[in-house]
Write a structure and sequence with these properties.
mainly alpha, 0% strand, membrane, transmembrane helix, transmembrane
């Protein structure tokens, strides 16, 4: 009995196992995919004439200020779609995936600034 190890009670929080979906790379991919889906949805809501190719051309036509202004508006509105996975992962307490979504939102914000102020 004298050689038995002393048991120290653990009064902290119990350790929770990590979920397989709690990775920042998954959040980054989802954070990029949802605004792209938002861009497609906005095409069907706003576009009255023209093809989808013409709509996508407005995102790369750097010589037309009107098209760049329209592209920056569409890009900023499409970022609203990131609220869905953001709050989903936040409620599931998968903070690494939330971090990936936030990183993608920063990247889209930098793209928005480039459209709005640098390329126009």
């Amino acid at each position: 009995m004298a050689n038995d190890p002393v048991q120290i009670p653990n009064y902290g929080r119990p350790k929770k196992g990590k979920s397989g979906t709690d990775v920042a790379a998954l959040g980054l991919l989802i954070g990029i995919a949802f605004p792209i889906l938002g861009i497609v949805v906005l095409y069907f809501l706003w576009s009255t004439s023209g093809t989808f190719g013409d709509y996508l051309h407005s995102f790369v036509s750097f010589n037309n200020a009107y098209e760049m202004n329209k592209a920056s508006k569409v890009l900023s509105l499409s970022m609203i779609a990131n609220l869905v996975p953001f709050y989903y992962f936040l409620n599931k307490k998968q903070y690494l995936a939330v971090r990936g979504i936030l990183i993608s939102m920063v990247l889209f914000f930098l793209l928005f600034v480039m459209y709005r102020f640098v390329w126009s």
